[in-house]
Each structure stands twice: as C-alpha cells, then as structure tokens.
Design a protein that fits this description.
Blueprint lengths: L4 E2 L4 H4 L33 E10 L2 E10 L6 H6 L4 E7 L5 H13 L4 H6 L1 H8 L11 E7 L3 E6 L2 E7 L1 H12 L6 H7 L6 H9 L4 H9 L9 H29 L34 H5 L23 E4 L7 H11 L9 H20 L5 H6 L3 E10 L4 E8 L4 H14 L13 E12 L1
Parallel strand pairs: 8-10
Antiparallel strand pairs: 1-11, 2-3, 3-4, 4-5, 5-6, 6-7, 9-10, 9-11
Helix pairs in contact: 3-13, 13-15
C-alpha cells in the first residue's frame, strides 16, 4: 500500500493564491493616534488565552506568542470569521533590529496572503510596523488587537501607538501564525490550543518589561516640551555665527593657496533597469502529486540512520551551508551577528518596498517547495519535522549562504531541505525597490505524513 504524505501539508492550499496580481490599488486609510497609556488587560478583559507557543530561530528563543479570543477555537477558518475582539500577544525574548523585525513579519505575511489581500492593506500595514520608534528589545510586550468598533491597533509596552486600522490588517498578521505556512507545525497547533506549551505560558506570565522601556513607549505619543523664547533666539543666531567663522576660514585658506580652483569628483550611481519578474499564473500544488518521488529519493544515498541531526559539510561549488544549532554558543551567534550587521534601525520602509517584498518572497518560496522531496527512508520510518532555514540571496539571485537555524532533529530531513534550495537556485534578481544588496529569507519546510 502506497504511503500518503505531504512535503508541506499546510502550504498546499496557501501558496495557490499567492500570485494574484489583479489589484495593485491600496485603499485609502484613515489613522487615529490615541494619546493615552493603558494597562495591558484593559482592552481585553473578557478574552481567554486560546493557545501559546515559543518561536525559536538561530538556536535561541526569539519570542513567546499567545492568541486571545472571546471563546476557545481550534479551527483557523472559524477564528478568522469570529466577529468579536481578538488579540495577538508577543513577549520579546531576544533583541531585534527594525529591519529584522520588519522582514520577519513581511516575509511571513507575503507567503500566507494573496497579493490582492496584501495590496489592499499595504499602506496601513507599513504604518502599523513603523508606529514604534524603537526596535523590539528583550522584555518588550507587543500586542496586535482587533476590535469590531476600533479596528486594528498596536499596543507597545502598554501604550496604544496606533489604532483605527482596517481589521484586514489584523487578519494579515494572524495568518502568519495559523495560516498555510506557519513558523512550524507545532507552533500552529499550540496557538490553536491543540497542544499545550507550558514553557510559553510561563514566559508570558513571568517575563517583565523594563520600566524604562514602558516610559519610552509612553513618551512617543507626548507632545514636545515647550522651549523658552531666549533659547529659540540663541538657536537661531548660532548658525549665523558659525557661517561667519566658516567664511573667515575659507578666506584665510584662499589667501594661502592662491587662486587655484578646487577639483571635485562625482560618481553617478545609476539605478539598475532590472526588476523582479512576476509570475502571472497560479502556483502549482506543493503537496506530493507523485507519491513515488518520495520512495525513490535520497534513501539510496544515505549510509546511516541517525535519530538526531548533524551538521552537513558544504559541497564544492555550492552555497556555503551552516547549521546554527550544532554549536549554539558559537555558530548561531555568528549567524545572527551577520544578519544584524546588515540591519539599519534608521531605515524607512515604504509601501513600494513592502509590495516588492510581497511579490518577490513567494517566487523564491515557490521554487524551493517545488524542489522539495520527502526522503523515502524518512517516510518508511515515520520521521516528521520542520526545518527552518535562512537563505542569503545576492543581488543577482545567486545563493550565498544556507543556514539551518532550526533543525528538524533528523539529519536526513535537514539535508533534504538544503538540497531543495540548492536545486531551486538561482533565483530572480532582487528588485531595486527593496534597496538592498542581499536578501535574507527565512524559509520553513515542514515534512509531515498524512
């Protein structure tokens, strides 16, 4: 009897709707800032914790997450259709940069929502992501709230920073947890309340926010303190004095060097004419259409059957492959440091960049999923798991590095995920709208038997 399986069970239906390019018009938005500080429970007193989980990456726990609803629900579609209030709670456990935080959510949103749905709320989504003036730090409490009357709002360390957004914005965020491609299968099941995560519950209840961070968040919505008139006058006169001093210095310098004209050099940084290609069709189903593919894949190439994962050596001529979990006190920190080096906390994220990321991310993920095969020996032995990878893509679309940031705990599954990326490469060129030399994509591949 042929074994039925799915190389990515959740992705089958979700990715089919990722390439809808019919609607590029973002709906007008009307935002309302609420200049009050509230306690974390004041807007959600009647909600129950539906489920909780911990998101881990790069060998570290990144945040504890919980979903609050008016009634317990285990069905994703039922949760989305609930008319009452909902709340997503994120207790940050590790420091983020603005870019890393933005990319994490935008990439997850991109692969769990159609372009039509995304583009209709793109402006509001960007406003929501930029409402906080500081990147999340360890101990911060970030809450996304959906209310029938107040729409979607963001509460950061107890202060409501933005509200009045469409409830569709909350739905975009919610699908990153319970949609077709969640961080991993266990995370989704725990958020849905199908499994209990006692560690997550403990972290949510015991980790406290630094009082300085609470005060900082509250200060973002306060008007600036008045400045005395004498100080204003001093500030206005300062540039004049400085200008005079500079003029005197220039006059002295000209006398010393004579009338020789200064030489100037300029560089023309022309923008690239290439843009990311678009797939106008519907993505093929990513579940096993050919069940014999699993039984004929990699099993003949494996010479051992370890129950736990080990680090795979990089192959000559192929992208460098690392496994962050092998030595969490060394390799994971180095991998994370490399990511942080490219982050810029002062960067502004535009709607154009958000739409470009929405278009580009599913193309990469789709190519990887199409090349994913469930190893036959893993099928025979009932091995399942999620492999979380960081794939670093160059401007030209070449893969520079593949890092296993969260192992499936089975070397054969980890290796299959890495091979899928290697076979899928090269990828389309990074679109100019993303304004980056490299694109670091987080890709979860779940191997799950039916």
């Amino acid at each position: 009897m042929r074994t039925q399986y799915s190389k990515y069970l959740y992705a089958t239906d979700a990715v089919k709707n990722l390439f809808n390019f019919s609607n590029r018009t973002a709906i007008p938005v009307c935002l309302a800032l609420i200049f009050i500080t509230v306690s974390p429970a004041s807007l959600s007193d009647n909600l129950v914790r539906n489920g909780s989980s911990v998101y881990s990456d790069l060998g570290k726990d990144q945040f504890a997450a919980a979903l609050y609803l008016e009634t317990y629900q285990k069905n994703p579609q039922a949760i989305e259709s609930l008319p009452g209030e909902k709340r997503m709670e994120v207790r940050v456990l590790n420091n983020y940069s603005k870019r890393r935080w933005f990319n994490f959510w935008m990439q997850s949103i991109s692969i769990n929502n159609s372009r039509e749905t995304f583009s209709g709320s793109a402006k509001q989504l960007v406003d929501l992501m930029q409402a906080a003036q500081s990147a999340p730090q360890a101990g911060d409490l970030v809450e996304y709230i959906s209310s029938p009357k107040k729409g979607t709002s963001l509460r950061f360390n107890g202060t409501v920073l933005i509200s009045g957004l469409s409830n569709q914005v909350f739905d975009l965020l919610l699908r990153t947890w319970i949609g077709g491609i969640p961080p991993n299968a266990a995370f989704k099941d725990e958020i849905l309340g199908k499994q209990r995560n006692f560690q997550a519950n403990e972290l949510l209840e015991t980790v406290a926010t630094d009082p300085k961070r609470i005060a900082l968040a509250a200060s973002w919505i306060k008007p600036p303190a008045p400045v005395a008139k004498t100080k204003i006058a001093e500030a206005k006169s300062a540039p004049v004095a400085e200008t005079a001093a500079v003029a005197a210095a220039k006059s002295t310098a000209e006398k010393e060097v004579g009338s020789k004209p200064s030489e100037t050099a300029s560089k023309d940084n022309a923008a690239s004419d290439n843009t990311a290609p678009r797939d106008s069709g519907v993505a093929e189903q990513l579940a096993a259409n050919d069940n014999t593919k699993a039984n004929n894949s990699d099993s003949s190439q494996e010479t051992s059957s370890p129950d736990k994962a080990h680090t795979e050596e990089p192959h000559t001529g192929k992208p460098h492959t690392e496994q962050a979990l092998k030595k969490p006190d060394n390799s994971a920190e180095k991998a994370e440091a490399r990511i942080e080096e490219s982050d810029d906390d002062n960067v502004d994220f535009s709607v154009t960049a958000a739409l470009a990321m929405r278009d580009y991310t599913p193309i990469i993920v789709q190519k990887i999923f199409r090349q994913t095969s469930y190893p036959g020996r893993a099928v025979q032995r009932g091995w399942e798991g999620t492999v979380q990878m960081s794939v670093l893509i160059s401007k030209s679309g070449e893969v520079e590095r593949i890092t296993i940031t969260q192992s499936s705990e089975y070397a054969i599954l980890d290796k299959a995920a890495v091979k899928a990326v290697e076979r899928a490469a090269p990828f389309p060129e990074i679109p100019d709208e993303l304004n980056t030399r490299v694109f670091d994509l987080s890709v979860p591949i779940t191997f799950q038997l039916k």
